[in-house]
Amino acid sequence: MTPLHLAFMMLINLIWGFALVAAKVSLGHFPPLMFTALRFGLIVMVLFPFLRLHEGRMKQLLIIAFCAGPLGFGFFFAGVALSNPSVVAIVSQLGVPFVTIMSVVFLNEKVHWRRWTGIGLSFLGVMVISFDPTVFQFIAGVACVVVSALIGSVGQIFQRQIRRVGVFEMQAWIALVAAPVMIAGSLVLERDQWHLLQTASLLQWSGIFYTAFASSLIGHAGIFYLLQRYEVSQTAPLTLLSPIFTVMFSVVLLGDVLTTQMIVGALIALSGVLIISIRQKRIVDTGP
User: Fold this and answer.
1) pLDDT band at 135 (very low <50, low <70, confident <90, very high)
2) What is the pTM (predicted TM-score) of this model?
């Protein structure tokens, strides 16, 4: 990887690492469904020109949009609201082992002992974190993030099977599906939306704009750009810097407290994710 692209990769990790901290600030004012609706509403307005109909593939596209949009992000931001960014950043990495398991179930992929070891370590690390007394007090938030990772993995299975849909077009469809669903959910389950819109400070709005534009449009488009030029085995391990940056930002800016048990659990979980990520590429290249 060239120095310029390596620097770009670090920038993407910094953007993603700060995203949960920015979201947490906004979620202190906006309820989760409303926050998610506003985020996707902004994305729709920017990416609407990218929308295209794909004959014969719309069912797959809509399934992906629901999993990655209202269901996946709905539970995810509920988890951020109920937990702290450090824990969310680590637990959300369960998406990697979940996708691997889904690949076995739905795509008949073969998984051998190294990746099963990685899967086991990922879940063990999250269990260690979850049973920390500091974390257990917001276990509902952890559960929401786990559900989000599981739903997102279903969407990724369908993404593996769909072709000729660009990154901005995919995000446009996800946002188009998510925005009205989240608006309806907010109107039914949440209260005082108009008052919250009127009283939000610039800082509280900034989290919505940041997660919509920096995290989604720059971060996801950037990683798509790099994946077109480098092997997954080169990029996947570097993305594990993102949760580490989140933990750093959370401790420094939000005053999150890290216990020894949380640190140990995070190291175990991220080690498992790293093993899976590296093995995924080797399996593709050489076969099982």
Assistant:
1) confident
2) 0.84
Domain residue spans of the chain: 3-286
- Which tens digits make up the pLDDT trace of 193-231? 999 999 999 999 999 999 999 988 888 778 777 766 776
The three state secondary structure string of the chain is CCHHHHHHHHHHHHHHHHHHHHHHHHHCCCCHHHHHHHHHHHHHHHHHHHCCCCCCCHHHHHHHHHHHHHHHHHHHHHHHHHCCHHHHHHHHHHHHHHHHHHHHHHHCCCCCHHHHHHHHHHHHHHHHHHCCHHHHCCHHHHHHHHHHHHHHHHHHHHHHHCCCCCHHHHHHHHHHHHHHHHHHHHHHHCCCHHHHHHHCCHHHHHHHHHHHHHHHHHHHHHHHHHHCCCCHHHHHHHHCHHHHHHHHHHHHHHCCCCCHHHHHHHHHHHHHHHHHHHHHHHHHHHCC
List pLDDT tens digits, range 62-103: 898 898 888 998 999 999 999 889 889 999 988 888 888 888
